[in-house]
Amino acid sequence: MHIGLVGLGKMGGNMRTRMRNAGLTVVGYDRDPELSDVGSLAEMVEQLPSPKVVWVMVPHGDPTHSTITELKELLSEGDVVVDGGNSRWTDDEIHAAQLAEKNIGYVDCGVSGGVWGLENGYALMAGGDAADVAKVQPAFDALRPDAENGFVHAGRVGAGHFSKMVHNGIEYAMMQAYAEGYELLEAVDMVDNVTEVLNSWRVGTVVRSWLLDLLVKALEDDPHLSQIRGYAEDSGEGRWTVEAAIANAVPAPTIAASLFARFVSRQDESAAMQAVAAMRQQFGGHAVRAAEESPDVPPA
């Protein structure tokens, strides 16, 4: 199989290597000439036999919109575009309709595996018409883990990215639970070796997971995480998951709380907690800290 790959960053670059290792011919394009195989998107398309398959791995939003708009002018009837980035599922319907004007197929694919995907393979969740998915299947087979599972044709256009969105929402909640457990273990003076406690959970317990493996690895490298600031961004998919839950009247309190916890991490000082402290002082006479007072020093 010949395939074009747009976007050769951390994920895209590793995906190019994994597909080539599986025997596929990959023509990669990136705006960074040091990474790119060709000088332009048009040159990449020219090197592909028909029906052409182009996989897009660029940031969601405007970069994806503009790439698909350009590909529409370069591709022809029967070709297929795959969006493997973290696009919102509602964008998939727009992109599919846009490409359908020239009878170009569209497949959305949620991709999970991060920087470990090159070695371990990627979990792939595809949405789109079965005939279009079939044209991309050799690439899916090259990228998926060496196991029976790891790839699913999840449903119609949008189903792939919707599935990946829910996956990431669950990921938010799992990470938050591990993080809170870690903080509690660190807070008490009776646990001497927090890292080894977490390490002991990695085999035989119901909470074992790859995320736990990664947390233990991080603690082995930096036992008290002193080199890392407690600031966590969100890629957008946690927000989209909560919005979808609201739109479908599905209770998702754990995922929502984990998203809000990330917002809290970005505050040097929480206005809400200032208000809580003020109210506690008003109704109970509880002591408060002055704004300039160090949080590590008990109030007088």
TrEMBL record:
Lineage: Bacteria, Bacillati, Actinomycetota, Actinomycetes, Propionibacteriales
Name assigned to this protein: Decarboxylating 6-phosphogluconate dehydrogenase
UniProt domain 6-phosphogluconate dehydrogenase C-terminal: residue ranges: 160-298
Matches recorded under SMART domains: 6PGD
Location of the active site: 164
Coiled coil location: none
Keywords from the UniProt entry: Gluconate utilization, Oxidoreductase
BP terms from Gene Ontology: D-gluconate metabolic process; pentose-phosphate shunt
Similarity field: Belongs to the 6-phosphogluconate dehydrogenase family. Belongs to the HIBADH-related family.
GO MF annotation, one: phosphogluconate dehydrogenase (decarboxylating) activity
Superkingdom per UniProt: Bacteria
